[in-house]
Write a structure and sequence with these properties.
CATH superfamily: SpoA-like
Structural class: mainly beta
Number of helices: 1
CATH architecture: Roll
Strand order of the largest sheet: 1-2-3-4
Radius of gyration: 21 Å
CATH topology: Surface presentation of antigens (SPOA)
Helix content: under 10%
Number of domains: 1
Shape: elongated
Order of helices and strands: EHEEE
Length: 93
């Protein structure tokens, strides 16, 4: 049973957020293409992106940039090593 009076608020802890789902996205790069060109793509097609080799990639949580990172391969899986945590979204658009 809860021992709080009606004007007390429940104590929030970091642990209360551990089970909240978030969407994490890693953007390798972007490009603009005509729909007709996209429809012509097939297996093995290469789509050129605006990111240069060695340039940091962007990591988003719920569509907000939170970090920059580098691609790594771990046990034949692609991963990301975070290199910089973003505090201000305006600086990294």
């Amino acid at each position: 049973m809860n021992n709080m009076t009606s004007n007390e608020e429940p104590e929030l802890t970091l642990e209360a957020l551990y089970d909240v789902p978030v969407q994490v996205s890693v953007v390798l790069g972007k490009t603009t293409m005509q729909l007709s060109d996209i429809l012509k793509l097939g297996r093995g097609a290469v789509v050129e992106l605006d990111t240069v080799v060695g340039q940091p990639i962007k990591v988003y949580v719920n569509n907000k940039i939170v970090a920059l990172g580098e691609i790594v391969i771990v046990d034949n899986k692609i991963g990301v090593t975070l290199t910089d945590v973003i505090n201000n979204e305006k600086d990294h658009k």
